[in-house]
Amino acid sequence: MRKPFCDAMVSRATNPKLVFLTGDLGYMALEPLQAALGKRFINAGVAEQNMISVAAALAKEGMEAWAYSIAPFCYARPFEQIRNDIAFHDLPVKLVGNGGGYGYGVMGPTHHAIEDYGVLLTLPAMQVFVPIFDEDIKTVVGRVADTAHPAYLRLGRGELSEQFEAPPYAPWRQLIAGDGMVVIAVGPIAGSFLGALSALPQSNRPNLWALAELPVLWESMPATLQAQLQSQKRVCVVEEHVARGGVGAELALLLVKRGIAPQRFFHLCAQAHIYERYGSQTFLRKQSQLDVAALLSVLKE
């Protein structure tokens, strides 16, 4: 999603208050944005804590401050600065983490971001955006820019097959309809299920929803999804994030609070940071049972 992100940011470069900071990243990806912004494109170097504090100061002075890095270097290394300098002052700094989930596969656990939005959503007023498709990026960048609160944009890899067309952006979108269980997939991983799930018979085909904005709030859910959650006996959440702090835990708590009790609640999530072997994002998803085969197995239960 880096190219559509760069394109979307270039289109915003005419805003004189926009400042973009990068932690020494963006080579062969963000050069058009650097050319468009000139001195307002700042390479903060391998000093992410300082980059976050500078971004907070710029936001305090009324600038539209964006801070970009590989995801774990954007939220984990400078967490104290995000907490103290941004969140405690409710400053609208836009954090951009590239390679969410197992996106940086072979680079190993230091480069994986499988606890990112769970950690950040513990902070006051934080909003998280996890776009599903490349086609979402322009709209999402606008929504991130317009928010008056701290925001984290988790960029991944668009996984829309050629035979499908991305629907117009919305925080919640039903991608597949059927008579089966409710499946909620967070972020780009939703696209990886479209082919297999759409081929299932109507009776077993799930209602697949893609979630792109957090935290999970009942009031933000479409009425159709609310009705399905109240009537369906089985619910499954799929997310490239650890169980603790993830959408699965948040949704389960939300349903309990509203007196909604599905008979079965399935949660497919990132199982581990450390594996014996590392490979591509697809390989690590399979290791964590986050692939199509794992979801089909849940549907058969």
Quick description:
The protein has 301 residues and is an alpha/beta fold. The chain contains twelve helices and twelve strands.
Q: What would your notes on this structure say?
A:
The longest helix is centred in the first third of the chain and has 13 residues, at 48-60. The protein has helices spanning 2-11, 31-37, 48-60, 71-75, 79-86, 116-120, 137-146, 194-198, 223-231, 247-257, 281-287, 292-300; strands spanning 18-22, 41-43, 64-70, 94-98, 127-129, 151-155, 172-176, 182-186, 207-211, 213-214, 234-238, 264-268. It folds into two domains: 2-155, 3-Layer(aba) Sandwich (Rossmann fold); 172-300, Rossmann fold. It has 301 residues and is an alpha/beta fold. The protein is built from twelve helices and twelve strands. Helix 1 (2-11) packs across helix 7 (137-146) and helix 3 packs parallel to helix 5. 33% of the residues lie in helices and 18% in strands. The protein has a seven-stranded mixed β-sheet, sandwiched between helices. The chain has a five-stranded mixed β-sheet with strand order 7-9-8-11-12, sandwiched between helices.
Radius of gyration of CA atoms, rounded to a whole number: 19 Å
For the record, the CATH architecture of the largest domain stands as 3-Layer(aba) Sandwich
Order of H and E elements: HEHEHEHHEHEHEEEHEEHEHEHH
Q: How far apart lie the N and C ends?
A: 35 Å
| Helix-residue proportion | 25-40%
The tally of helices reads: 12
In the CATH hierarchy, what is the class of the largest domain? Answer: Alpha Beta
Number of domains: 2
Give me the CATH superfamily of the largest domain: Thiamin diphosphate (ThDP)-binding fold, Pyr/PP domains
* Overall pLDDT: 95
Q: Which strand order do you get reading across the main beta sheet?
A: 2-1-3-4-6-5-10
